[in-house]
Fold:
Amino acid sequence: MAETGGYNAFEMARSQFDRIADLIDLDQGARDFLRTPMREYHFTIPVRMDDGSMKVFQGFRVQHNDARGPSKGGIRFHPQETIDTVRALSMWMTWKCAVVDIPLGGGKGGVICDPHNLSMREQESICRGFVRQLARNIGPLSDVPAPDVMTNAQHMLWMLDEYEAIHGGRYPGVITGKPVGMGGSLGRTQATGYGVVYTLREALKELDIRPADTTASVQGFGNVAQYAIELYNQIGGTVVCVSCWDQKDQCPYAFRRKEGIDLEGLRSITDPFGGIETAKAREQGYEVIPGDEWIEQDVDILIPSALENSITADNVEKIGKRVKIVAEGANGPTTPEADNALHARGIHVIPDFLANAGGVTCSYFEQVQSNMNYYWEMDEVLGKLDVKMTSAYVAVSELARRRDLYMRDAAYVVSINRVVEACRERGWV
Structure:
């Protein structure tokens, strides 16, 4: 996973940091401190499988920096998970929390496994085993996990239950992404995808483009992509192409319909992991094309919402001439070489850790609500989310214009300066 397409995600995250450290003339001590996670946990999770055999899974939790508050970040279940992916994602979480100015630091976790091939009982055993290994190292005031790729609210509830059993109390603030009614927040499911579109809406305003005059192509059809499409449709945009991973054929497909996709129709033929049934999509009138062609569509907006390293030096030149905006719903979807090409073309990039920060922002809201034991209505959650995402976008955009910076660089300058300031005030660097 970290090596996708020949790229190491952690080296990519470090190279992005190094470039901004040069730009802001950061001293060597602060560089060394922020290039390396503060803490890492590597552990094994033995599980008795349904067939009676014993299988040992490898797990990780990385706490990159907690100067601004408790570490925050998801837990991935993925067969190609690596420690370098988790390190990279934990670093990106630090910048993500800082750019939207919430009092949290960066963390991330992962287990090397494939939930597609595991029963619910086996998945529960992995979740509880994960927490048993980390029960002393996570908590409402130290490190707050959440769902990520191929984990969900049920997984979080098993983890919460195990943590509470170990510590002998009720600690709903230790994990976010829980089911509503069990300490979860309304709006959390929509938050990441909606956040992408809140920033996209601001970018369109800035470029003086009406949403109703735009079309988009979306990579991925998981939670982030589905809710981004939902809100983008609501503000008047039209999605003409989506892609997804086909578990049966072990390859991606894209689904194109020039008059626009029918979101609810596609949702009705989608599995829990965001995979669309190819035959049923054809019945609904979609043209099924190779998955990597999502990037070649004749649209105004690209929304990569799958995994990292999706826009690379190998495919960036295939991006259509009409494309004006790339809104990065996924983490690290654009490699540095591809990023340079987008910059050279004048494409307005809304960088990942700004565009997709809606999820961690709503996770922060959930943490606050859980710790207070007082919960907000949906309108209040989404209203607060819109305010946070809009404020963050405007702060980055204004700095970009004032200092003539690329949007990604401006977002990094804002976030890294905030983290460095916190570290210095604590006397760490």
